[in-house]
Structure formats: structure tokens, C-alpha cells
Amino acid sequence: MGLCLPCMGGAVKDVVETPDPEIKRRQLAEAAERRQMEASSRGIKNAYSVEQKKKKQEEMEKRLAASGSGGEGGLRWQVG
Length: 80
What we know:
With 80 residues, the protein is an all-alpha fold. The protein contains two helices and no strands. The protein has helices spanning 21-40, 47-66. The chain is rod-shaped. It comes from Calidris pygmaea. Residues 29-80 are annotated as: Disordered.
């Protein structure tokens, strides 16, 4: 019971060949990228706006780092 013979009609056509390892690797990488994109945008209505805010914040941090006065940070402590 349960013998699977390739001589059965149409059985050869139903066999699925495994893809080349390079093709499979590329497909897995693409799927991982899609999952990351979906996960990063989950819960965000306007992903473009979030990216713009992030870029603007990075620019502000770069400006502050470039205009820093000798690493003092701009804060002064007064004792007494």
C-alpha cells in the first residue's frame, strides 16, 4: 500500500525541482528585505513623513556637532 511509482500517469509532470542554490539564496534575501520593510512601516500611516523627520533630526545633530565650541556642550555650572 502507498507505493509511489514514477510510471503512474502524469507523476513526472507533478515533480517540483528545487531551484539552483544561488536563485534560492537571492529569493530568501528578497523575502527578508520585504519582511524588514513591512516591519519597519508597521503602525506608521505616513512612512515618507517619518523618514523626512529622521533625516532632519540627523542634519540638526550634525550641525550641532560641527558648531560645538570645543566640546563644552554650551552648559555652564555655577557653584555658590
